[in-house]
Every structure is written in structure tokens, then in C-alpha cells.
């Protein structure tokens, strides 16, 4: 939601472009945030981890005003298959 320290790196032209977009304070992230009213954050549920290997620091994966839920010890892509995250997501959809 707010970028990642990983955005400071990029090893190819395309990767560098994508990485630049995900840097803290990038124009791209600013444009995304600027296009959403602040009250919209309350509609989001954000799952984040203290062991995310892509989005770090962990606080960057949270959204002020959202329902932010810590999933301890879980890597970035592992969040997709985490049983607790899946159960909570399905419960929210009901």
C-alpha cells in the first residue's frame, strides 16, 4: 500500500521500471493514493506479515484506517495459501 524497500533494486530495464514504481514516495504510488478518498480505507482488510520477503518493512503492507491483520511468520506468496487467511477471507465474503 505504501511501497517496499525492495523497490530500491531492479536488475533489468523492466524490473527497474516496476521497482521504481514500488519505491517509497514514488509518483505512481502517490497517484494511486490520490485517486482514492480517505474513507475508502475502512472498507479494506489487509493481511500482512512480519516475515514478508517482498513487502518490507511490514508496516508498508498496512493501510491506515483499514482492518489490518498480522499473519506472523508467513512469507509474501505463502499468504495466498495460508489456511487462516483463506478462512478469514471467505468469512468476510459471506
Fold and architecture overview:
The protein is α+β, with helices and mostly antiparallel strands. The protein has three helices and two strands. It has helices at 13-21, 27-34, 83-93, and strands at residues 45-48, 67-70. A two-stranded parallel sheet has the order 1-2. The chain is globular. The two termini are 25 Å apart.
Give a summary of the structure in a few sentences:
The protein is an alpha+beta fold and 94 residues long. It is 30% helix and 9% strand. The protein has a two-stranded parallel sheet.
Features:
single chain; alpha+beta; 3 helices; 94 residues; 30% helix
Secondary-structure map:
Layout: H1 13-21, H2 27-34, E1 45-48, E2 67-70, H3 83-93
Parallel strand pairs: 1-2
- Strand ordering within the main sheet: 1-2
Order of helices and strands: HHEEH
Largest sheet: 2 strands, parallel
Q: How would you classify the helix and strand content by structural class?
A: alpha+beta
Strand content: 5-15%
Q: Give the % helix.
A: 25-40%
